[in-house]
Amino acid sequence: MNNIPQRLRRQLAADPEYKICALKDYHECGGRITYEHALIVAGKQLQTRYAIVPVCARGHEVDGFQDAHTMDKDMNRWVALNRATDTELRAISRAIPYIRERARLNSIYGPYRGPCAVPPPPPNITPSLFPLYSFA
Ligand SMILES: [Zn+2]
Questions:
Q1: Separation of CA 125 and ligand 1 centre (Å)
Q2: 45 alpha carbon to ligand 1 midpoint, in Å?
Q3: Residues 6 or more apart from 124 whose CB is under 8 A from it?
């Protein structure tokens, strides 16, 4: 997991999405964020942003979670495939038709919505919205 090209590693380190476990809403999280190469294409780890999934140590079975059986490789692939565009998936679909693989995983896990669903801002309460409380 430490073999990410330096330039890409720097980009990921500066990316806010890589500070959060991509599965935080889908599993029990634990530990630091690690980078998981979720796609192996032609025997090699795919070195692209969408294929390198930020996942907690528990979801990656590293650190104290080795042999804990807390990693679901299909879920990591599901995240990666849903972060890719159809064009990107067509480009890597030789032995495995990845668009079909994404559909198969979506039929198991549902649509992937990402880790950073930003909650809506609080309603902007201004006195003018509450004219009943005006005593003027
Ligand atoms: Zn996690």
A1: 35
A2: 21
A3: none
